[in-house]
Amino acid sequence: MLQATESKNIRLGVNVDHVATLRQARGTAYPDPVAAARIAASAGADSITIHLREDRRHIQDHDVQRMCAQSRVPVNLEMAVTPEMIAIACAVKPRYVCLVPERRAELTTEGGLNVAAHVNAITSACKTLKSAGIEVALFIDADDEQLAATQDTGAPHIEIHTGHYADASGDAQTQELARIAAFAARAHAAGLEVHAGHGLTLENVAPIARIAPVVELNIGHSIIARALLVGFAAAVAEMRDAMLHARHSR
Ligand code: PXP
């Protein structure tokens, strides 16, 4: 029998950061990530992800407030482990927070959180967020040292960083996939709910969607890019179909 956290279904969290990137590029009021979230939810997104970065390069504070107030599907706020971000999350109360590492100069989140090196700060953040009624995930690489440290923090969920898989090709990608699948099984056996994301596209999503313990994928850049060609609702629906097709044909 399937356990509660190892389902035939797999959820799609649509990251709308890059709707805001386009808006910020011109300093206009459009396009609105909250309006995009409405379309994504109608097209089958199970949740909406936004990343409030320290430099506010895309999502702004008012987006977070409006998204949490208006989204009809749960909001997952990605954020760094800083007092500023923890205070914002506790005030706006998204359903989920995913704690991520953040360096100002990076193009995007380039690796997982080093939970092992910051276990006290992360444990304290998890406790504060939990007491505000928020479920926390830690964004980590498929690394057992990070898994052991994650278990010490009390975080109920992890999101496995799939960027190395997405960037690799050939045998290296096959090896990375096997590493992620084995790691997901260990994390699930340890009682954690397992998510994955970063760098996933229509072309590379199926093998990740087939990993049984993975119950949620968070995908942004490729869906927004594809939306330019086929429309946003179609891009969300296509990704969801690709994930579900892979899941059911394993
Ligand atoms: N998951 C996390 C934790 C992320 O930081 C990001 C990027 O913001 C994503 C998923 C989505 O990555 P991508 O935009 O490459 O699909």
Condensed summary:
The chain is of the alpha/beta class and 250 residues long.
Q: Topology, please?
A:
Elements: E1 11-15, H1 17-26, H2 33-42, E2 47-51, H3 61-70, E3 75-79, H4 83-92, E4 96-99, H5 119-131, E5 135-140, H6 144-153, E6 157-161, H7 163-167, H8 170-189, E7 193-197, H9 205-209, E8 214-219, H10 221-230, H11 232-248
This protein binds pyridoxine-5'-phosphate.
Structural overview:
Mean pLDDT is 94; it is low at 1-6. This protein is α/β, with parallel strands linked by helices and 250 residues long. The chain has helices at 17-26, 33-42, 61-70, 83-92, 119-131, 144-153, 163-167, 170-189, 205-209, 221-230, 232-248, and strands at residues 11-15, 47-51, 75-79, 96-99, 135-140, 157-161, 193-197, 214-219. The radius of gyration is 17 Å and the shape is globular. Helix 5 (119-131) crosses helix 6. The protein has an eight-stranded parallel barrel, surrounded by eight helices. Helix 4 (83-92) links the parallel strand 3 and strand 4 (96-99). It contains eleven helices and eight strands. The chain binds pyridoxine-5'-phosphate.
Estimate what percentage of residues fall within beta strands: 15-25%
What portion of residues is helical? 40-55%
Please give the alpha-carbon distance between the first and last residues. 16 Å
Low-confidence stretches: 1-6
What shape does the CA trace take?
globular
What's the pLDDT, averaged over the residues?
A: 94
Oligomeric state, counting identical vs distinct chains: single chain
Helix count? 11
Sheet with the most strands, sense and barrel status:
8 strands, parallel, barrel
Bound molecules: pyridoxine-5'-phosphate
